[in-house]
Amino acid sequence: MKQYLRGLIRRKDLLIYLVISGLKAQHRNSFLGYFWWLLDPLLGVLVYYFLVVIVLGRGGENYGAFLVIGMVAWRWLSSTVNSSSKSITNQSGIITQVYLPKIIFPLCSSMTQLINFSFGLVVVAIFLLFFKIVPGAEILWLPFVMLIQQLFLLAISLVLGYVSVFIRDIENVLGHFIRVWFYSSPVIWEAGRLPEEYSWILSINPVTAFLSSYRNIFMYNSNPEFLHLFIIGLVSLISIVFMLYFYSRNEHKIIKVL
């Protein structure tokens, strides 16, 4: 595995190139181009704000800021899951011609979406300014929360990238799974609204810890969910190390399938 890791490090220039090219390819043929990085999460927020506040009459004070934080963080997760499931299969032309550590492709996919999330933070800042919410010193924990979520998403990306090569139907299943995951997570609704008998859903859902942590440091001037984040980060880190070992031993099977 050490030799495999050294080979991956030697390809760091390619890793950077693939991340940059991935960012350019997302909106290459669109009229608004990179402006979609800001407009896309903003449009999603407006849709759910209209549904919850205008149509249903729910929401509450500062719901716009509450919603945009949830939507931007969720968009990072959903886009990473979707792109990582196709990260290896979409590069079959390169993989079958040149030897590369296959783990580099889901890694690039995960890093690309991390950069996209940073643009979403601009939308969050605009909403905080509009609702006159001033974060406190706890905002310094933002890189820590982002790091834990990135580790979590990278672990998922490595698994999905490999499995999707052999089970192509997983891309179709993911759309339904992500939709269920979205509505079972406190993205557009507050965690306290869930009936007591269903509270276990929040306890086992990692997204709950991320959303609560972001909202704590942006809106409520309180600390992130340290215990939950530590557990998620530890499990994710162990999973990443295992998948690194797994790729080093089994990635040769990918070429046979592609």
Which tags fit this structure?
single chain; 258 residues; mainly alpha
H/I helix tally: 12
Number of strands: 0
Main β sheet profile: none
Name the beta content range: under 5%
| General shape | globular
InterPro entries: ABC2_TM, ABC2_TM_bact-type
GO molecular function, one term: ABC-type transporter activity
Transmembrane segments: 34-56, 114-134, 140-167, 226-247
Keywords: Cell inner membrane, Cell membrane, Membrane, Transmembrane, Transmembrane helix, Transport
Describe the structure.
There is one protein chain. The chain has 258 residues and is mainly alpha-helical. It has one domain (2-257). It is 72% helix and 0% strand. It is built from twelve helices and no strands. Helix 2 (12-26) packs across helix 6, helix 3 (36-55) crosses helix 6 and helix 6 crosses helix 7. The model has no long low-confidence stretch (mean pLDDT 87).
Write the layout of secondary structure elements.
Elements: H1 2-10, H2 12-26, H3 36-55, H4 63-84, H5 92-95, H6 104-130, H7 142-166, H8 170-183, H9 199-203, H10 206-220, H11 226-250, H12 252-257
Helix pairs in contact: 2-6, 3-4, 3-6, 4-6, 4-7, 4-8, 4-10, 6-7, 7-11, 10-11
Membrane topology: Multi-pass membrane protein
GO biological process, one term: lipopolysaccharide transport
Domain ABC transmembrane type-2: 32-250
